[in-house]
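Deliverable D5.2: sample structural annotation.
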Amino acid sequence: MNPLKLMTALILIGSSSPVHAFELGFIGGYNSNSPSISNAGVDATTSGSSGYELGAYFSQALVNKFSIEIDTILEHKSYVLGSSSTGTTYSLNDFQIPVFARYSIIPLFNVGLGLYWSSSFGSVSTNNGTSSTTFSQSYSAAGLSETDFGLTTSIQARIPVTPVNRLILDVRYNFGLSNLSTDSANSYKSRELCFLAGFSFGL
């Protein structure tokens, strides 16, 4: 089928599908985490490394194409401090709760803006890039706070599968506002790009 005709058909299907007051869904995907780090005012070199996301969400329709969404997401993320080939790779885990206000541009697409809160768990794993040995330490030993807070944005596609189900494709960017460094002379703020896919159930 011609791509333009396919897009038109999907929009018509989405327009004619019933709007559900409540929606539950499951999401998962890939993240690239590249925090903004400075030591005593000097910016450190960081590069993103791959991680994964797994979670679920609840959404409630409001008025005038607006909805509110609350997610619960388990994250594994990592980044490289220093050179991408010889720098130290840090790996972390956290439990994140984003809350979005979403606006539907057209039936298939919406944009979201909101806040997130996260709490880390486990330990911080490091590998210096020249050794196969991985070391683990507590967050306090690594000089990091275990809780984070920030802004989150989203562009989401919602493709009808059945009258009550949607395929979800979501691109997000998380902009941390908290300074996670426990040393007041240093700064560590989260910067994360996420690519997610999922499936929703209208209620």
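Annotation notes: The mean pLDDT is 88. The radius of gyration is 19 Å.
The annotation will be released with the project's public dataset once the embargo ends.
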